[in-house]
Amino acid sequence: MLAVYKFGGASVKDAEGVRNITKIVEEAVKPLVVVISAMGKMTNAFEELTGFYFNKEKDLCQQKKQEILNYHKSIVENLFGDASGSPGFNYMSELLEQRLNQEPSRNFDFEYDQIVSFGEMFSTKIVADYWTSSDIGNMWVDVRTVIKTDDLYRDSNVNWELTSELVTKTFSFNKENIYITQGFLGGTLSNLTTTLGREGSDYSAAIIGYVMKADAVTIWKDVPGILNADPRWSTNAVKINELSYNEAIELSFYGAQVIHPKTLKPLQNLDIPLHVKSFIKPENNGTVIWDRSGISENVPVYILKRNQVLLTVSPHDFSFIMEDRLIDIFTIFSRYRIKMNLMQNSALNFTACFDDNRQLDVLLEDLQKTFVVRYNKGVDLLTIRQYTDEAIKKMTSNREVIDSQITRKVARFVLR
After folding, report:
1. Residue 10 carries which DSSP code?
2. In the prediction, which pLDDT does 258 show?
3. What is the C-alpha to C-alpha distance for residues 279 and 4, in angstroms, rounded to an integer?
4. Which of 72, 111, 155, 234 is deepest in the core (most CB within 10 A)?
5. How far apart are CA 302 and CA 230, in angstroms?
6. Assigned domain for 293 exists
7. CA–CA separation, 93 vs 209, rounded Å?
8. Residue where one domain finishes, among candidates 221, 256, 287
C-alpha cells in the first residue's frame, strides 16, 4: 500500500504541531509520501514580503524578512534546543537573503513565485531535519525538480508527461520508506520556480498520488472533515461523512476552501479515495471523497465568499449582449486572469461577481473602453447547495440581496 499525506500550514504552525504530525507519520502505513505547506500563516507573510521587495521598500522588506526568520527560528529552537539544529533552515535563510539582495524584475508574478516559495522550503527543511534527528528515516525532495510546469507564474499548468517520468523515478523507495516534499510549487524546464495557484498544496498531493497510483491521498486539516459550512462563521456546521467526486468538484468550483479545485480530477481518473481528516483527532474517520452518489448527509451546504466585486457592463451603443460581446468580455477578464465566481446576462447587461484583487483598476479601465461599467465592492457571494426555503431565509434575513441566481440544486445570492 502506498499513501500520500498532505499537511497544511495550521498543522505545522509551531513546534508542538511538528511533533504532532511526526507522531501521525510514525504510525502511518508505509511507504508514504508527505507533502507539507508553509508553516502557519507564512504564505501571507511572504506575500507581504514580495510586495515590499517588488516596490523597493527596503526598510519594510528588511523588517518583514526578519519577522519571518524569527518565526521559523523560534520553532527550530523549540524543536532542537538551539538555532543551529536545522542545517536546512539555515541554508534556506542564506538563499532568501541572497534573493532579496537582487534587483527585482518588472514581472510581479515571477517575483511572487520566487519568494513565496521559500515558505514551503523552510517548513519541509525544518521537519525533515527534525525527523532525521529523531531517527525517523526520510528523504527530502525538492518538488520543483519533479513537478514540471509551464511559465504561467502564480497559476502554472503541469507538464504531465515529464512530471510522471520524474515523479516515478524520484519517489523510488529504494533507500527510505518516507519521502518529504513541498506542496504548491513546481518548476519550469529552465528550473525557475512556479506555483500551482493559491492553496495548491492539495493539488500537489493529488499529482503525486495520481502518478504513483497511490491507494489513498489524505489531507490533514484543523477541522473534523468537510463540513456543510465554514466553522469560522457558522457555529452549527455538520460534518459530511462521504462525498462523490462530482459533488466535491462542484463545491470546490463554487469556492469551498477545504479542497483545491484542481485536486479532484486526477484522483477521480484513477478512482483514488481522498480522505480529509483532523490532525487534532487523527483517530477519527473524517470525510472520504470517492466513487459514490451525491452527498451522504441531506443538509444544505453553505459557501460564503467575502470581499467580492459585483460588476455590470452595458454596451455604449445600446446593442445586445450576444456572442460577440460575450467573447470580448471574457477575453478582457482572461487577460487579467480574473475568475468569475458568478455570471449572468440579459439583453443589455452582463453581470459578474469576482474576488477583489490588485487587477481591478486595470480591468475597469479596459472594460470602460467599450462598455458602460457599474460595480459594487465589498459584497458577499453566498452559495447554498441542496438548498431549502428555510436555509435561504436563514442566510439572507437582515441582508440586502442585490442579485440572485437559483437553479434546481443551487441557490446563489450577492449580499450587502
Report:
1. G
2. 67
3. 15
4. 72
5. 8
6. no
7. 30
8. 221
Amino acid identity, position 284: N
Is the predicted pLDDT of residue 260 greater than 80, yes or no?
A: no
413 backbone dihedrals φ, ψ, rounded to 5°: -140, 135
Side-chain-side CA neighbours of residue 389 (13 Å) = 0
In this prediction, residues 304-332 reach a mean pLDDT of 94
The C-alpha cell 438548498 sits at 387
268 found inside a domain: no
Neighbours of 279 (CB within 10 A): 21
Cell of 5: 499525506
Pair (347, 208) in one structural domain: no
Q: What distance in Å separates the CA atoms of residue 267 and residue 289, rounded to the nearest whole number?
A: 10
- Whether residues 18 and 153 share a domain: the answer is yes
Report the CATH number that the domain containing residue 381 is assigned in CATH: 3.30.2130.10
Which cell numbers hold the place of 256? 469551498
- By three-state DSSP, how is residue 262 classified? coil
Range of the domain at 361: 301-415
Closest CA to 330 of 345, 320, 316: 345
Clarify whether residues 217 and 120 are in a common domain.
yes
Helix/strand/coil for 399: coil
204, 221, 238 - which closes a domain: 221
The domain tally of the chain equals 2
CA angle 238, 244, 248 (to 5 degrees): 65
Helical packing angle, 87-100 and 58-80, nearest 10°? 180
Q: Cell for 110?
A: 515571477
Tens digit of pLDDT for each residue in 336-354? Answer: 989 999 999 999 999 999 9
> 180 - beta bridge partners?
34, 140
State which amino acid sits at residue 202. D
Q: Is residue 255 part of a domain?
A: no
Residue 233 is classified by DSSP as T
Please state the rounded mean pLDDT for residues 255-277.
89
Query: What DSSP character marks residue 299?
Result: S
